Amino acid sequence: MEEMTFHYSYIMIVILLVVGLYGMLAKRNLVKKVIGLNIFQSAIFLFFIKGAIKEGATVPVIDPELGVEAGLYFNPLPHVMILTAIVVGVAITGVAMALLLTIYRHYGSLDEHRIMERMSK
Amino acid sequence: MIQNLPILIPISLILFAFLSAFLGVMRFRLSQSVALLGALISLVMAVFGLNHVLQEGAISYHLGGWPPPEGIEFVLDHLSAFMVLVITLVGFILLIFPTRPGFLMDEQRGVPLYAMVLMLIAGLCGVVLSGDLFNLYVFLEIASLSTYALVSLGSGRAAFSSFRYLIMATIGGSFYLLGVGFIYFSVGTLNMADILQHLPAVYDSPAVIGGAVLIVAGIALKMALFPLHTWLPDAHSYAPPIVAAFLAAVQIEVSAYVIIRFLLDVFTPELMTATVPLTTVIGWASAAGIIVASVIAIAQTDFKRMLAYSTVGQVAYIGLGIGLANPLGIVGALLHIMAHALMKSCLFLIAGGVYHKTGIKNINDYKGLGRRMPWTMAAFTVSALAMIGIPPTAGFFSKWYLLLGSFDQSNWVFVGVILGSSLLNAVYFFRLIEKVFAPSEDKVEKGADSRGELSWRMLLPIILFAAGILVVGALNVFIVDRFLMPIVAGF
Q1: What span, in angstroms and rounded, lies between the C-alpha atoms of B353 and B372?
Q2: Is there a cis peptide before residue B69, judged by omega within 30 degrees of 0?
Q3: Contacting residues of B for A98, CB less than 8 Å apart
Q4: B 136-155 residues with CB below 8 A of A?
Q5: How far apart are CA B318 and CA B391, in angstroms?
Q6: B181 vs chain A: nearest CA distance in angstroms?
């Protein structure tokens, strides 16, 4: 049971990954695809943040009382990496939105099937 | 100075990208000249870098003065020096091509076309030079982001196919990031050289195996390895000609580079062949891809679409070399990266130039163009021969090494696939060449401006690429011995 409480966050992450992937691949609405993409990426971000956590450790700012023992602090590197990855994710979302705007102006719809219909005309 | 080369190449390209964007607001012409200058400078640096690496060995640059494994490392070794040279050379020659036929749009002030192209080259150089898994991801996404924007500039369905490409490539990038997470939490480091040292201790751990599978799957998606290629034909055929050339010639192949780098220097062949049969899967998927893509390519009538399907097949040759996982296979794959970069750029530029001049898109309408555009069609013939793999061209020698690699492993199916696909290509391209040089019987000309050769600025890059195909073919022994053999020396 203890095992479960420590690892349940991984189960959440897997669920989020699957939800995101489903949104990207199965949803017809293009905006929902972008939302799925964001959920998928967030799950990966959470995975990294979860990996940085150690039991009984604290935030990675050196506390004079605790000294410089590495085991007493969370690993700060994943946080820094994910900060960069979030920036990358925001840029991708921005470009995706710009593309959606072009698509909407061109076809008057964001529904994949309807766009395909209008394309084949 | 020379010690800083690994970082100077991407940084100077990014700097020139900004400069090109700002100057482009004032005058469009200025932005192209600045981009050309930036690409030339990076090309010169790449040549210097390769020369230095060949004489004195790899250069390692520590970002911010932090030594690896804690700090981020940029490495210019044999493999990255070769790749940077290919990227900057192809990039520079492609940038000579004029804007209107190249991007299918008028020269407008403020459209940062060339800035995006420079960011693409910078991102690709960064991927190749990075010695750090996460840094590689960031540069991979920088390169991808500029291609989404560039693809959407194309005609018709371009925006929609760019969106699809964005979704698929982001899934690929995210898988890669997830795999990096698995590896990082298993060995506690992101530096490639450091991982190589620590990984053998945990080869059997499910996390490492899962990470390796995720990384290879993600990159294979970006590389459009069969059967994950579904996004490629649309994105490449609707993109403007220069962009399509960039995508097919360098972007796809940098993904192939990532797999080769992981195979040689991060995971080592033991993990990728013995513990998990990753290379075997890549090899067989590629073998199937070569045949399927060649057959589909033959059925196409739109020239650019045909080239896009042929890219799937040609990338699969690189995948086949990786799948062989022996020195000759990797040499063949690397040589094919160079050969394919030259011949596919040449063909896409010809497609763009011919479309601009005559409005012809369909291959069947190329009839009799040999008379009207002797130089362009001579270049077309050279690159078509290279696509088939006829001896004096570069395309023959890369296939030759792939064949030798297959013989080495007595993998007769791969031998059959390489020979069979060459025959398929031969049937097809010979028919095309015959058509181009046959006297045209119908006098009906398409479009108003349908006579005469392309302008010299269109012709120059096309001729340079065609000459490059022949030069690489003639110098193949030199290139393999000096540049490529050291890469696989420790294999």
Answers
A1: 13
A2: yes
A3: 149
A4: 137-138, 141, 145, 148-149, 152
A5: 19
A6: 6
CB B47 within 8 A of CB B76: no
B163 and A CB contact within 8 Å: yes
pLDDT in tens, chain B (491 residues): 778 888 889 999 999 999 988 888 888 788 888 889 999 999 999 998 898 888 888 888 888 888 877 888 898 988 999 999 999 999 999 998 888 887 877 767 667 888 899 999 999 999 999 988 999 999 999 999 999 988 888 777 888 889 999 999 999 999 999 999 999 988 888 888 888 888 888 877 888 888 889 999 999 999 888 888 888 888 888 888 899 999 998 889 999 999 999 888 888 777 777 777 888 888 899 999 999 988 888 888 888 888 899 899 899 999 999 888 888 888 999 999 999 999 999 999 998 888 888 888 888 787 777 778 888 888 888 988 888 888 888 888 888 889 898 988 888 888 888 888 888 888 878 888 888 887 665 554 554 445 677 788 888 999 999 999 999 888 888 888 888 888 887 66
- Check CB contact of B326 with chain A, cutoff 8 Å: no
Reported for A19-22, long-range contacts at CB under 8 A and 24+ positions apart, including other chains, are A21/B171
* Interchain pair B167, A41: CB under 8 A: no
The partner residue sitting opposite B177, judged by closest CB among A85, A91, A100, is: A85
B185 reaches A (C-beta below 8 A): yes
Q: Which of A24, A44, A88 sits opposite B167 (nearest CB)?
A: A24
> Inter-chain contact B145–A24, Cβ cutoff 8 Å?
no
User: Which of B72, B171, B191, B194 is the best residue to mutate to test the A interface, defined by the most A CB atoms within 10 Å of its own CB?
Assistant: B171
Q: pTM of the prediction?
A: 0.91
Q: Are B155 and B64 in contact (CB under 8 A)?
A: no
Domain ranges in chain A?
Answer: 2-120
Q: Contact B127/B19 with Cβ under 8 angstroms?
A: no
B449 burial type by CB count under 10 A (0-12 exposed, 13-18 middle, 19+ buried): exposed
Task: Name the fold adopted by A2-120.
Answer: Helix Hairpins (1.10.287)
- Three-state SS at B105: coil
Amino acid at residue number B429: F
SS3 for B61?
strand
Token match 């011995």: residue?
Answer: B481
Neighboring chain A residues of B145 at a CB cutoff of 8 Å: 91-92, 95
Helices (H), B104-205: 113-129, 133-151, 158-187, 192-198
For tokens 């086949």, what's the residue? B320
Cα dihedral B405, B266, B228, B124 sign: negative
* Gap between the Cα atoms of B87 and B245, Å rounded: 12
Q: Are B265 and B308 in contact (CB under 8 A)?
A: no
